[in-house]
Amino acid sequence: MSVDGTLFREAMARLGAAVTVVTTGTLAEPVGFTASAVCSVTDDPPTLLVCLKRASRVREAFHEGGPMCVNVLASAQQHLSDRFASALDAVERFTVGHWTTLETGAPCLEEAVSSLDCRIERIVEVGTHSVLFGQVQAVRMGSPVPALVYFNRAYHHLPHS
């Protein structure tokens, strides 16, 4: 039985997800994009995965052995999500926010809810996407503020608990 792609995308739109900005490169030559297809794989060794559209103009910057930082956005950072999903060039995207590095040298957003600095261990091509497996080298915890969530093709702002 084959599932219709439109129906599959509609079902997946109803799966809420944290909004992140995923980066690579260096502070001098940064590259990044907005992603909600991010999840943990295992905690031993700490590993996560990120899905990136193969046709993305930033895809070639991400490679096995390279750095990758997953920056979880706060509810008040929707503008950063929009910026990193826009047609702005790579450097222009990074003119907002305060950027630093952790272990790998990938840009890390100082104001993020959390940042997971990884080394890309493996890339698996599946259909239209590349699945990037990152082994976490360092974690930076930001302020415990509500995260930004994407659900049903719209942003949602979680209340303080």
UniProtKB/TrEMBL annotation:
According to the UniProt entry, its GO molecular function terms are: FMN binding; riboflavin reductase (NADPH) activity
Source organism (scientific name): Acetobacter aceti NBRC 14818
Identification of the protein by name: FMN reductase (NADH) RutF
Q: Where is the Flavin reductase like domain?
A: 12-157
> Which lineage is the organism of this entry classified under, starting from the top rank?
Bacteria, Pseudomonadati, Pseudomonadota, Alphaproteobacteria, Acetobacterales
Keyword Oxidoreductase part of the UniProt annotation: yes
Swiss-Prot/TrEMBL GO biological process terms? pyrimidine nucleobase catabolic process
- Which InterPro entries does the UniProt entry name for this protein? Flavin_Rdtase-like_dom, NADH-dep_flavin_reductase, Split_barrel_FMN-bd
The UniProt entry, under PANTHER family, shows: FLAVIN REDUCTASE, FMN REDUCTASE (NADH) RUTF
